[in-house]
């Protein structure tokens, strides 16, 4: 008798991640309905809700040890709808329906989302990749692409008509986002970024401000988040390049790699200025390469 309730409770917990994925799918599909009804603000909010649920379902599955092949397939198919089809239809209905080329660019975006998800699934099955590659996405992730896309609608809802709502600007932005999705640009995964303990209070304060802004200035918040995310791309590229050029650090934790980079910077304070002045170390090596030889050399 005591084992039956526990078994039922376990089944309920294991179905929670898939339930969140189904809710995200419903949110994405419902956003299309509201876009067709002329309620763009609700359509945008539902796509944002789908992105939040997508970010949570995988973590909940890992916490509950409820990961499964079926759950992964449901999540991938839901992402294609939530972040490919739904945002494309919302943007087309709200901003590009008056131009025949508008359908072409949103179609390109939706196809690029599907291609990006297919590549992501293929990389999951590749066990020969170095450990550090798990900390980076290859190209922009689909949820981030959807948020970038609806930020165009957020600008229209916040500021009204202007150059930011012109057919050429919106079309070029959609194409640019589509290219980022299928690009090979490394982008840091958010859950791979660790926060030092002494900054935990600051992070909580920032989250409180974000929560308040979500109610008071939702459109501005979306645009600020998109700009902040795009600003991290150069840092992700730099971090990926550093790790890729230091095979000895591939198996290290991110915290250890950051410590190694700080140690190198402290040991070589003038590593950038000295090559420009023509200062070389004996043996023909610049100071920027000291101590950075690959294993086995």
Automatic annotation (TrEMBL):
Region (Disordered): 253-297
Subcellular locations according to the entry: Endomembrane system
Topological category with respect to the lipid bilayer: Multi-pass membrane protein
Full protein name: CDP-diacylglycerol--serine O-phosphatidyltransferase
EC code(s) of this entry: 2.7.8.8
Xref: NCBIfam families: pssA (TIGR00473)
Top EC class of this enzyme: transferase
GO molecular function: CDP-diacylglycerol-serine O-phosphatidyltransferase activity
Coiled-coil regions, chain positions: none
UniProt gene name: pssA
Keyword annotations of the record: Lipid biosynthesis, Lipid metabolism, Membrane, Phospholipid biosynthesis, Phospholipid metabolism, Transferase, Transmembrane, Transmembrane helix
Catalysed reactions, semicolon-separated: a CDP-1,2-diacyl-sn-glycerol + L-serine = a 1,2-diacyl-sn-glycero-3-phospho-L-serine + CMP + H(+)
Segments traversing the membrane: 12-32, 101-124, 136-155, 167-187, 199-231
Compositionally biased tracts (Basic residues): 256-269
Protein family (similarity comment): Belongs to the CDP-alcohol phosphatidyltransferase class-I family.
